[in-house]
Amino acid sequence: MPYGTLYLIPVPLAEDTSAKSFTPFLTDTVNSIKEYIVENEKTARRFLREAGLKTPQSELIIHDYSKHNRGTGTGDFFKGLQAGSDVGLMSEAGCPGIADPGAEIVEKAHRMGIKVVPLVGPSSILLALMASGFNGQSFTFHGYLPIDKADRSKRIRELENLSERNDQTQIFIETPFRNNPLLEELLKTAHQKTRLCIACDLTSATEYVQTKTIAEWQKRIPELHKRPAIFLLYHK
Amino acid sequence: MPYGTLYLIPVPLAEDTSAKSFTPFLTDTVNSIKEYIVENEKTARRFLREAGLKTPQSELIIHDYSKHNRGTGTGDFFKGLQAGSDVGLMSEAGCPGIADPGAEIVEKAHRMGIKVVPLVGPSSILLALMASGFNGQSFTFHGYLPIDKADRSKRIRELENLSERNDQTQIFIETPFRNNPLLEELLKTAHQKTRLCIACDLTSATEYVQTKTIAEWQKRIPELHKRPAIFLLYHK
Fold this sequence. Notes:
Two copies of one chain form a homodimer.
Chain A: E1 5-8, H1 18-21, H2 24-32, E2 35-38, H3 41-50, E3 61-64, H4 65-70, H5 79-82, E4 87-90, H6 103-111, E5 115-118, H7 124-132, E6 139-144, H8 149-166, E7 169-173, H9 179-189, E8 195-200, E9 208-213, H10 214-219, E10 229-234
Parallel strand pairs in A: 1-4, 1-5, 2-3, 2-4, 6-7
Antiparallel strand pairs in A: 7-10, 8-9, 8-10
């Protein structure tokens, strides 16, 4: 029997944003699949409801990879696929495998010769890049910057240099409760003329995206505490 | 009067993929806007029809930035926004400003204090990264590699080094009619164990996404001529 397909299913970035997040194909896919590999079972079940799932939740098979990673590995996750069932992969928010640990599931699928199909959906990195006005022909996403203060200011200066040398947008994130200290550090360390885009609460009613020079940001510092944010830096 | 909002509107990557590409919010937005800044007027009008536009096309104001860039600048594009009208920005395919020249329109909007709202939609870079199984916590998009053969193999080796040193996925594209020569070069230049993901015809019926080592690809070379493709390289 041919293997099933692994569908990569993006999840909304914020609550009550279904109309902004889901394509009709995503809803159809969700209704044609009964087995999922997810980062968090509770979030996943709520998401499936929002996405228009008609299958009773009790009929779903859900593998939680954040639990399994701590224990016995992910071998079991692929039995359904090998037996010909289609399976959906979902992370907690945004696109599976982008800034989250789902990539190793996809990697394994490729190794096993399983077909992988990515679905269109929200990615905070991509939305932020699009909305920044910075160079989208060359960009790097770095994930998190170092926590140590000295390392972090060194890293900020490195990112400025990379941006200037390669005409490249530098993108990074921070744990939401550390956003304010990171911004403070950026305003202290980066050049006055470096441009910084802050994109936060993307797709939600409180969405905020602004691009300014460091000098301009210093005049009016936004409150970012506990708001999911993406930072983009561009120096040329 | 307050300024209008600049909506960044992604466009499908392939024909007949509306259900895979559009969110209900995108269709609503398109129906609430009468003025557009676009990369290609003809493509844009076709897209708006597919996206469920109800406004008669004759009532639309369309600014073509690929024409204007060659001539008189983009000053006129912002008059509607300054007078309070919402305006949509669209590229030929995918997300405006990502691997296309729309970014300068967004940059100017920020400078003028105009609100920018990015919409969820298809990005071949992001879909390919998600489906590659490579590191999505650190990645660089480089755009095109050099055309000159010697420069190109040098660049491929640089990308391998970058990937190894930074544990970072390296993403690049090529003009579709040059895909086959690029793949040949990759198979000749890169290490046997380097992994290469080829993602082509994304979202369309002929979609193809596979990740293999260079050694595996050498055994069976896919035909990529004139198919829109994304290449991802990962070496660790």
